[in-house]
């Protein structure tokens, strides 16, 4: 008998502004791509566009999926069986708001990093690879 394997889906955006990529520091003191989980009835690309507007205050054109990765976060209540992280290349369109300082989970820290700084960050390797790929491919 088949049993469904259910995991949350997190849609992330790879956004370069002024030649630097935007990252968010999470509660585990890791850097990650900005983004979030799908809202009911929302398509993944819509989630990315919404999250970039909410978190970074920017409008983007959401491009192709750069990477899908099943990431297990053992200390998480809803992601200890894994979370499917879908990372999308995004083209910066325009800044329309401010970078978020208080988010759904409390204090939020967002920063921009140059490509050469990424390798030294406390960040899961799959994010580093996705950023390199998006930077290499450019729109």
Characterise the protein shown here.
Strands 1, 2, 3, 4, 5, 6 and 9 form a 7-stranded mixed beta sheet that branches. The protein has a two-stranded antiparallel sheet with strand order 7-8. It is globular. It is of the alpha+beta class and 139 residues long. The chain contains 2 helices and 9 strands; from the N terminus they run ββββαβββββα. The longest helix has 13 residues, at 44-56. The chain has helices at 44-56, 125-137, and strands at residues 9-17, 20-25, 31-32, 35-37, 58-71, 83-95, 102-103, 106-107, 109-113. β7 (102-103) and β8 (106-107) form a beta hairpin. The model has no long low-confidence stretch (mean pLDDT 89). The protein starts with 8 loop residues before the first strand and ends with a helix. The protein has one domain: Nucleoside Triphosphate Pyrophosphohydrolase, CATH 3.90.79.
List keywords for this structure.
single chain, 139 residues, alpha+beta, Nucleoside Triphosphate Pyrophosphohydrolase, seven-stranded mixed beta sheet, 9 strands, globular
Name of the level-1 CATH class: Alpha Beta
Count of domain modules: 1
Unreliable sequence segments: none
Shape, principal axes of CA atoms: globular
- Could you say what the CATH architecture is? Alpha-Beta Complex
SSE sequence, one letter per element: EEEEHEEEEEH
Taking the sheet with the most strands, its summary is:
7 strands, mixed
Would you report the number of β strands? 9
Helix content: 10-25%
The CATH superfamily appears as Nucleoside Triphosphate Pyrophosphohydrolase
**Class by helix and strand content?**
alpha+beta
- Helix tally? 2
Q: If you compute it from the alpha carbons, what radius of gyration comes out, rounded to the nearest whole angstrom?
A: 15 Å
Beta percentage is 35-45%
